[in-house]
Amino acid sequence: MAAVPFSVSFASKVAIVTGGARGIGLACARALCNRGASVVLADADLETASKAAMEMNTQQNKVLAFACDVSSTAEVEKLVQFTVEKLGGVDIVISNAGIVRAAPFLEMTEKDFDDVINVNLKGVFLTGQHAARQMVKQGRGGAIINMGSVNGVTAIPTIAGYNASKGGVHNLTRSMALALAPHGIRVNAIAPGSIMTDVLRKVADNPEEMNKVLSRVPLGRVGEPEEVGEIAAFLASDSASYIVGETIYADGGRLALN
Ligand code: NDP
């Protein structure tokens, strides 16, 4: 069951999608690109990002890949510079790059905790700040969408750093929204539940574990990346012109269950 695409044009808009090489990021990039946006797929995995970019390029819109670790200020700065040089500006940012490190709380290493916070939370801060400086300079508004998680409001004990990082993303989204709304830049977040990407595909190999996941989803199925991509396109579009500082949950009813 895929989300039904809605009609909106992003012709002449330029988007940056972090973690855009695969999974949810790639689906967000496709949702924008299919509607006419030019997109930079910014990812730690340049090879996969480049292959995806080549497939998505059309005569109407450009799709470029760029190697970027979102936890590095210097690399995020270069990402924004590259986007401006190659595509003429920045209108839409999907801050989606994220990692998970699992371990029981008492055994979680400081490095794993730091890595998760640095990519998932600091990465959203750096990407949002550097892109927003450019967007403010341009003076034509825009939209920033940060990828949160249902784990930003509920907690799975083995991923304490991840839960904390996503809770941080939801609140950082509000702070960014307040700072940038006066410039016509709308900042919102999406909090997905269980979406079928590489992480969940590994769980799907174990039917018992998969049944546990499904038992927590009232809709009785996991989500597809495209179902998050459509929400990103909506939030980036003028159809969401009065939505600011919100987090939209896409979880098949999981949070309603708690
Ligand atoms: P994937 O692991 O499938 O894709 C994430 C992409 O981000 C990968 O290409 C990865 O590269 C890249 N990446 C990792 N670290 C960095 C970094 N430091 N800088 C730039 N790129 C990086 O993830 P999903 O598509 O499943 O998830 C995307 C987002 O959605 C994440 O923020 C995740 O937390 C969130 N989310 C996902 C859910 C799900 O069920 N899938 C549920 C809730 C939230 P590489 O492979 O080289 O590491």
TrEMBL record:
Residues 13-193 form the Ketoreductase domain. The keyword Signal does not apply. It holds the Pfam family adh_short_C2. SUPFAM superfamilies: NAD(P)-binding Rossmann-fold domains. GO terms for molecular function: oxidoreductase activity. Transmembrane segments: none annotated. Keywords: NAD, Oxidoreductase. InterPro entries: KR_dom, NAD(P)-bd_dom_sf, Sc_DH/Rdtase_CS, SDR_fam. The keyword NAD applies. Belongs to the short-chain dehydrogenases/reductases (SDR) family. This is Ketoreductase domain-containing protein. It comes from Pycnococcus provasolii.
